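To whoever is on call:

I kicked off a structure prediction for a single chain this morning and the downstream step that reads the tokens threw a length-mismatch warning. I double-checked the sequence; it's 213 residues and nothing unusual in it as far as I can see. Pasting both halves so you can look.
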Amino acid sequence: MLVRDGSRGEAPALLLSGGALLVGDVGRPDLLGGPEETEQHASELCHPLKDKVLTLDDFVEVCPTHVAGSLCGGPISSRLSTTIGYERRMNKMLAGGMLAWRTAALPIRIMPEWTVWDLETKMKDRHVLVLDVRQPNEWSAGHIEGAMHLSGAELPKRAQEVPKNRPVAVMCGSGYRSSVSASLLLHEGHPDGTNVLGGMAAWKKAGLPVTKR
């Protein structure tokens, strides 16, 4: 149950989380029945946590009904209350990183990656666009002919300038900034963004052509 302080605004101030979200733990699903029933009960607990509780602001205070010693959870803390932000950061039972996300069969999207040799082959199809997200001084020192230049810092505000009707290979100096930029493009709804591994360092090392025009 959410509690609001109407005198200060409409944002929820307090969550009475019952046995769902605990301090340092989450509620234990009903273990009665076989493995299929247990899995179903766990799923029924997981989805409200992911879709409702974890969408709340960090400042929301959490007051559960169970504390340390209760059989309704595992290593529950003895504290009587917590906050959404603290649990989001410290509670080992919430989303456990990508391993927990994958094993819970939750949806994921994998970003494609190409080597510079893959890119060279793909560029024979002139439909592929190379997006160089390096800084202007890096670009002027040498880039792939025909590439589009848009620094990683500019991309969040100018992502709409990247054509969505062409596959886009994102390039930086070594492959780190381009992975972030390619992820941003996918998040912004680009249907086909790919990170180029090794970036321009690998491209030059492979002896592939560079221009300063």
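Update from on-call: the warning came from a stale cache, not from the record. Cleared it. Sanity check on the structure: The radius of gyration is 24 Å.
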